Amino acid sequence: MTRKELIKQIKTKRSFLCIGLDSDINKIPKHLLAFEDPVFEFNKQIIDATKHLCVSYKINTAFYECRGLAGWRCLVNTFNYLPKDIFSIADAKRGDIGNTSSMYADAFFDKESSGLSFDSVTVAPYMGADSVKPFLKYSDKWVVLLALTSNESAKDFQFLESKSGFLFENVLVKSQEWANEENMMYVVGATKGKAFADIRKLAPNHFLLVPGIGAQGGSLRDVCQYGINKDCGLIVNSSRAIIYASNGEDFANAARNEAEKLQLEMAIEIEKIGF
Amino acid sequence: MTRKELIKQIKTKRSFLCIGLDSDINKIPKHLLAFEDPVFEFNKQIIDATKHLCVSYKINTAFYECRGLAGWRCLVNTFNYLPKDIFSIADAKRGDIGNTSSMYADAFFDKESSGLSFDSVTVAPYMGADSVKPFLKYSDKWVVLLALTSNESAKDFQFLESKSGFLFENVLVKSQEWANEENMMYVVGATKGKAFADIRKLAPNHFLLVPGIGAQGGSLRDVCQYGINKDCGLIVNSSRAIIYASNGEDFANAARNEAEKLQLEMAIEIEKIGF
């Protein structure tokens, strides 16, 4: 998906919501366990109920890998069920030496090779340029690079300060030598509040993928106040607060209601930037 | 596997060799394509030919994920074929927020959940303590944390210098608050030569997993000169130079010969430390 197509979708849907399909077989409603693949059934119903409210789905691969082969099959089936006009994110946080990152790129981008062809994949920056560049060889595919993550321990290394600023600032600056706002986004946690203002100085035009709303305590208001730009420039993710809104047979409706609450808040925010 | 068992294996086999099963369906001998799962057949024959010469096998997950479901099945079959007295490494370079890293830990350590139960998994440190700790909850399982990687672009971020030293030095020091030499190792690239001496000041007793011998240009001699400790403390990996030593029907023999060359060099090195 191109940047232009993504922005168009945001304008049309009045939303910049990403729904995280962090679907855990131990947390989904019990009546689904009667299905052959309970997690796939769960995802299907969540997608059907919410696809008009969001511009992106994010599949966190850990939740599928932990079930081994059955989980990987569910991941492929879920990917195939995603509406193709919605921005898909493989939240895989991969990254390895060049020839190996090429393999990871094939895993998430090359349908012929792996059965998967996500629009984007999250990548960890620790190993530097040659670990990221192989993901950038696919046209209309994106790298979503970890910059400032939403977790408490982000402070352990991401705030280490060198002459050229904090580590996450170095990641933001250095990575712009490898890619631009047409094929790279950054992960910035919603829990970081005012840090968004500093990040916008370093990456004014990039889209930011923002986890941490809801269960992790981040505020949509703060994120928009400091992080929105003229093209919106935000994809805000919510996982648990939406997909586990109810544990009963009404889970899909409950998920739609939660997604709609966020979409309505988002509509107000993008109204403000004249969309 | 415990540290004691690992050291015993090194003493018995006169080797600290790890063989990386970076098995690429496009690079394996063509006659294997007649098998139902060519990569599994390749791995099986490599394992049969080399298991007396190495103390560890490392499976880089990228090479399996890139083939989607078939690749993941091959990964599980290969894991099941590994001799259980040999130290197994899932070279997956995972790492995510706490509840997600728990899922990754299940994926690689919990056989009941995923079908896999490696002795260790490689983890990327960027997200800090809470992304690493979930992997440390399993007894006799190890985290192999990225510290100083073998690739050229390691310099992009790993050598950023703060008041508390280079980023990789911070990783070495900080992570010792989370784990000790009984359940954590570090990745240090063989291409880093004298950096091993500095690393040994910060982590004198830990095992180091050392990739970068062979195809990537690192020297076993340098690694041992600066990196070996009284318990050996090294697991040196070779992938391509061993598994692709021949492209013909003799590939397994050729792999054994290459592995044996390294094992003989290693026997000399561990003789020197009085093993």
Structural account:
Two copies of one chain form a homodimer. With 275 residues, the first copy, chain A, is α/β, with parallel strands linked by helices. Chain A has one domain: TIM Barrel, CATH 3.20.20. In chain A, 43% of the residues lie in helices and 17% in strands. Chain A is built from 13 helices and ten strands. The first copy, chain A, has helices spanning 3-13, 38-50, 62-65, 68-81, 98-109, 111-114, 129-132, 154-158, 167-174, 195-202, 220-227, 240-243, 251-272; strands at 17-20, 56-60, 87-94, 120-123, 142-148, 161-162, 165-166, 184-188, 207-210, 234-238. In chain A, the strands form two sheets. Chain A has an eight-stranded parallel barrel with strand order 1-2-3-4-5-8-9-10, surrounded by four helices. In chain A, α2 runs parallel beside α4 (68-81). The radius of gyration of chain A is 18 Å and the shape is globular. Chain A starts with a helix and ends with a helix. The mean pLDDT of chain A is 96. At the A-B interface, α3, α4, β3, α5 and α7 of A face α3, α4, β3, α5 and α7 of B. Chains A, B: One of its GO terms (molecular function) is orotidine-5'-phosphate decarboxylase activity. Chains A, B: This is Orotidine-5'-phosphate decarboxylase. Chains A, B: Belongs to the OMP decarboxylase family. Type 2 subfamily. Chains A, B: It catalyses: orotidine 5'-phosphate + H(+) = UMP + CO2. Chains A, B: Keywords: Decarboxylase, Lyase, Pyrimidine biosynthesis.
